[in-house]
Predict the structure.
Amino acid sequence: MNRPVRAGLGSKSVFHGLGHTVDHSVMLRIKVYENGAPAKIVDLSGAYLVGNDRVPMRAELKFANGEIVFDSRSRGAAALSIMWPVDGVGRIMLDTPRLQERKQPYDLNVELARGRLMQISQKREDWGLYGFLEGEPIYADIDKARGLLLDAMTASDEATAARLGAEATAAGVRAGEAVSAFHAEVFLKRRLAANQIVKRPLGCRVDPEQNTEAYVRRLTETFDFAVLPFHWSSMEPKEGTHKPTNIDPWLKLLRQRKTPAWGASLLSLSPTHLPDWLQRWANNYEHFRDCVTKHIKHVLKTYGSYVQAWEVISGVHAHNDFRFTFEQIMELTRISALLVKQMAPKSTAIIGIALPWGEYYATDPRTIPPTMYAEMAVQSGINFDAFGLEICFGSGERGHYARDMMQISALLDRFGNLGKPLHITAAGVPSGGGDASNGSWHGEWSAQVQAEWVRQFYRVAFSKPFVETVTCVRLADGAEKDGLVTTDCSPKAAYQEILRFKREIIGA
């Protein structure tokens, strides 16, 4: 695909009004080789530039004459994030280092390898993974990848450099996953030995339309809590008219089974969550805010005593079809958290982060980068208890690009450093099908690949001292095959992996 791709604003523009642009122009060029010759086609869908603090930059990306050309409107170095095939790993989103403008073009394979090895060095230092005898084979693999990169950087011709760079990238990605897995095992054992994992760490999102005995049994025999969807669209289809929903019988059922209920979410600006009648107030923020306040108060008054934890707001940084300003989005966040603290003080108040890598910001300057939104929620004194991250790959939704376990581990560290506990409020990959444009991991999506992803992901997540719970995105398959059981509730291999992990926690 050779069409130009536009990527998002630099970080400094957010606080001065979404949509502000800078006039400076920077050109960067990266050569792309395929089978020893300049590539003829490169798919740039999903590709974007990243500047300071991992914030996407507004830019135009083009591919022509074997080169990717960046025309950035923000002066300074920039890294390229691009979906790229990696031998033995799959097709995942990878990052170059931040590149300075220069006359000669860079080599994509070489820079992807350099970016991965720089990340490995940084995370090894952060994690203190030096001097472990058990890690010697992994350290040797890292040194091998470094050697390949050095050979690529000193190669006599560009085609050889690109070939060696591709080998270095593959070796670096595999070594990075091995490092993250080794770190997870070391620190998970420490958490288990110190009894640092909360008593009810495993959750699952519930489809209220499904209430068969088999569905309920699979849910309650494996998971410690159930997450129910409190979508505004289903609760108040007409302004001022509330109707009973299928949440009510589920709350009764969960109480009978002594399974705690969580609520997701009190407010989301995603079009599928909002009632149609709200569109009439799209240009009247004050009235919209009043409607939000009335809605949340009604939900908390009706259900507050039955719900142990609330996702008070979710994804407002990523979904902004109403074109609210940064200040208005933060005010909605503050109001949602404040109402929960006032009306359901015993409940945990969670601010939900969707698409936590922030790809959406590369094409929509009306939105806010996820880490920037999270930092402002902490710094502005909003009264909430934890962040909730959604980490889902392989679906047809834009932005669900596949990434490897080292990138997941590094992302969790980034949000964990904000000083709040983390809940993974949606985690999952499909067991088949999926959107090929969103990549793959360790082969095409299958029941076996899904199970391996679940096994590794849960160990990486719970090795972090700040991660308290993990919630799977779906119990039974629906339109997407990302459930842990089939439509008739037969367990998949991924479901068995979670059972094994639960037994390991209980045994510890």
User: Anything to note?
Assistant: The chain has two domains: 5-188, 191-472.
